[in-house]
Amino acid sequence: MSAPTTIYLLRHGATALNRLVPYRLQGRATDLPLDPEGVEQARCAAVALERVPLAAVYCSPLLRALETARIVASPHGREPVAVDALTEADIGRWEGQTWEDIEESEPERFRQFHARPGTVPYPDGESFLDVQRRVTPAFQRIAADHAGAHVAVVGHNVVNRAYVAGVLGLSINRARAIRQANCGINVLHFRRGKVELMTLNACFHLAPAGPA
């Protein structure tokens, strides 16, 4: 039996916005760099993957993903390849707001979104289903281009949850329940057109564990 293509799917390291309390939503319109904690998380992920013979490293073009990918790729002498389809979700007019702000200003849309986050889009933005349909072909292309090899991909919270939900055969409305810590690692095997999730959100390499 031929070896599977293995993709190590990471969420980017933390930015200052990720660690604010209360949490503020960060989509594609916010392009912050990693903060010092995020850099350390990326370094921990790089150490965890340094003995893996990575044939390539792909990432979202947003700065937080690109910086994480560069740190992960460095021990392997690779330069990350940015893929537009891996960009974080468009969260429209909720960008930068807290959930408390949103519930107060748009209570009905807040309720609808939390009841059906897969199919009710962020206002003026994308739904989780939109994101899943956008990113799935990108993962298929990456796997096909590196048959039998090991590849790292640095994505985002919504991107990773939407894609993993599809791999697991879950309803897209359950995607928000999938935990993705900053620089947590998912391991996926691709073989003969099928995808299997081997590891979900591994955080053993992070000390302390990454924030939500």
Write up what this structure looks like.
With 212 residues, this protein is an alpha/beta fold. The chain has a single domain, classed as Rossmann fold. The chain is built from 6 helices and 6 strands, in the order E-H-E-H-E-H-H-H-E-H-E-E. A hairpin with a 2-residue loop joins strand 5 and strand 6. The chain starts with a strand and ends in a 10-residue tail after the last strand.
In short:
With 212 residues, this protein is an alpha/beta fold.
* Largest sheet report: 6 strands, mixed
Number of structurally distinct domains: 1
Shape: globular
Please mark out the parts with pLDDT under 50 across 5 or more consecutive residues, or reply none: none
Overview features:
212 residues, alpha/beta, Rossmann fold, six-stranded mixed β-sheet, 6 strands, 17% strand
What are the SSEs and their pairings?
Elements: E1 5-11, H1 36-49, E2 54-59, H2 63-73, E3 81-82, H3 99-105, H4 107-115, H5 128-145, E4 150-155, H6 157-168, E5 185-191, E6 194-202
Parallel strand pairs: 1-4, 2-3, 2-4
Antiparallel strand pairs: 1-5, 5-6
Helix pairs in contact: 1-2, 3-4, 5-6
